[in-house]
Design goal:
Structural class: alpha/beta
Distance between the termini: 22 Å
Largest sheet: 7 strands, parallel
Shape: globular
Strand content: 5-15%
Mean pLDDT: 90
Helix content: 40-55%
Low-confidence stretches: none
C-alpha cells in the first residue's frame, strides 16, 4: 500500500526591523502571517527591536536597548542604523541556535540582514516586500529625490532586491515595480496579499456580531460624539505620506456641506499637530483624535463608523487598513490607487489621487445614501471572506518556502 507524504513543518526565523508589535501597517501583516503559519503547524521566531509590545502565543526575541533611544521607531530614522546593527547580531545568534529552515526578512533592512546571515549559514531567504525603500524615505522626508544621495539609495535598494531567493509582494501592483524598475526576475516574485481578520472584525449589522449596543453608546459618549451624527472613521498612522493632511482638508469641506458628520481619526504619532490643524480648519467639535487604539479594541471603535476612509496616495506601499474596513463591512472612500482597486474592487468609492475636492464630494454622496452604504459594506465583507482569508495566506507562503528549499 502507498502512504501519503506528510507536509513538512518548517522552523522560520522572521526578521522585523521595527518596534514590533504596534498597531499599524506592516506590524499587522507580520502578525497575521505569523499566526497563519502557526495555525498550519510551523514554528516562527521573530527577531525585532527592543521596544514594542509582546503578543501572547508569539516567540519574540528582542535586541538589547540603545540607552539614548527608548521610544517606538516609526518610519525612516538615522537611529535605525544602530538598531539594525543590533538586530543583525541578534538574528545571527538565533540562527546559530535554531538552525531554521527559512529566514523570512520583512522590509528591506530585514531582507539585507537575512541575506547576510543566510549566506553565511546556508539558509534560504525570503524577502517580504511592502513597498519601495527609497519611495518610503522620500515620503518620510528623509531623502530628497533631487538630492545627491538619491541615486546611491536606489542602487542600495536594487542590490537588496536581487539577493533573496524569493520575494513576496503584498499586492499585484508591486510586481511591475520590482520587475520593471528594479529588474527582478518574475520567477522570483510572488504575490501574497494581506488578509482580513474575519474572526476579530465583524460588521455591526451582522447577526451575533458581539457588539453590545449599550457599550457602543457609552463609547460614543466617552468620545464626545453628539447624538444623531454620522461617523467617518480612519485607522492608521497620522502622517502626510498617509494623506492625513488631505483628509482634514476634505473633512472641513464635508462639515460645511453636512454638519451632521463627525470624524473619528484613530492613530499616532503627530496627534497634537494634526489637532491644531483641524482646529484651524474649523473642525473642533466635529473631530476626535483618540490616539493609538490597541489592536484588540479596534473593532469596537470601528463599529461606531458609518463610512471609513483611506486617503493614502502612495503608489508603492500596501494598504492593510482597507482589509480591516472590509472585514467590518464598512463602505470605503479611497484615492484611486492600484492597491486600493486591488483590495476594494468595484465595491469601493474612489477619488483621483490627491484631489481633496473629489474626495470630499465622494464622501458626502456616500453619507447621504444609506442604501448605497449598506450595499457596498455587504459587498466588501463578502469580498474579504472570499478573497482574503488567512488559510490562503499561510499556504501560499509555505508553497514559496517549499520552492526555495528545493521543492521539498
Amino acid at each position: 500500500m502507498g502512504s501519503s507524504k506528510q507536509p513538512r513543518r518548517y522552523s522560520i526565523l522572521s526578521i522585523a526591523p521595527t518596534s514590533f508589535f504596534y498597531d499599524y501597517g506592516c506590524h499587522v501583516r507580520i502578525l497575521e502571517e505569523t499566526l497563519a503559519l502557526q495555525n498550519l503547524g510551523h514554528r516562527v521566531t521573530i527577531c525585532t527591536y527592543h521596544s514594542g509590545n509582546d503578543v501572547d502565543g508569539l516567540d519574540i526575541v528582542r535586541t538589547p536597548p540603545i540607552p539614548w533611544r527608548k521610544g517606538v521607531e516609526v518610519g525612516s530614522s538615522r537611529h535605525k542604523i544602530g538598531f539594525d546593527a543590533l538586530l543583525a547580531l541578534t538574528v545571527f545568534k538565533q540562527a546559530i541556535r535554531l538552525r531554521p529552515d527559512v529566514i523570512h526578512g520583512h522590509l528591506h533592512e530585514g531582507a539585507l540582514i537575512g541575506v547576510a546571515v543566510g549566506r553565511l549559514l546556508g539558509i534560504p531567504v525570503v524577502f517580504d516586500f511592502q513597498g519601495s525603500m527609497t519611495a518610503e524615505m522620500v515620503d518620510h522626508h528623509f531623502l530628497n529625490p533631487d538630492g545627491p544621495f538619491y541615486g546611491l539609495w536606489r542602487r542600495v535598494e536594487h542590490f537588496v532586491d536581487h539577493r533573496p531567493d524569493a520575494i513576496i509582494a503584498s499586492s499585484n501592483s508591486a510586481v511591475p515595480l520590482l520587475t520593471n524598475d528594479f529588474a527582478c526576475s518574475p520567477d522570483r516574485v510572488y504575490v501574497v496579499p494581506d488578509v482580513a481578520k474575519l474572526d476579530l472584525f465583524h460588521p455591526r449589522w451582522q447577526n451575533g456580531n458581539g457588539y453590545d449596543p449599550q457599550e457602543l453608546l457609552a463609547l460614543r459618549r466617552r468620545l464626545g460624539i453628539p447624538a444623531g451624527r454620522k461617523v467617518v472613521v480612519y485607522l492608521g498612522l497620522l502622517a502626510e505620506y498617509q494623506g492625513t493632511g488631505l483628509l482634514l482638508q476634505a473633512a472641513a469641506q464635508v462639515r460645511r456641506q453636512q454638519p451632521d458628520t463627525h470624524f473619528l481619526i484613530m492613530g499616532f504619532p503627530n496627534i497634537e499637530g494634526y489637532f491644531q490643524q483641524a482646529r484651524a480648519l474649523g473642525l473642533e467639535g466635529y473631530i476626535n483624535f483618540p490616539g493609538r487604539i490597541a489592536y484588540g479594541q479596534t473593532p469596537q471603535y470601528l463599529a461606531l463608523g458609518d463610512v471609513a476612509v483611506s486617503p493614502k496616495v502612495s503608489a508603492t506601499e500596501g494598504a492593510g487598513k482597507l482589509l480591516t474596513y472590509m472585514a467590518m463591512g464598512l463602505p470605503v472612500v479611497a484615492f484611486n490607487t492600484s492597491v486600493a482597486r486591488e483590495y476594494l474592487g468595484d465595491c469601493g468609492v474612489y477619488a483621483p489621487p490627491g484631489d481633496v475636492d473629489a474626495f470630499a464630494s465622494a464622501l458626502c454622496a456616500l453619507l447621504q445614501d444609506e442604501g448605497w452604504r449598506e450595499a457596498l459594506g455587504r459587498g466588501l465583507r463578502r469580498r474579504a471572506e472570499e478573497e482574503f482569508s488567512w488559510q490562503r495566506l499561510g499556504q501560499r507562503i509555505v508553497d514559496i518556502y517549499d520552492k526555495v528549499r528545493g521543492g521539498e
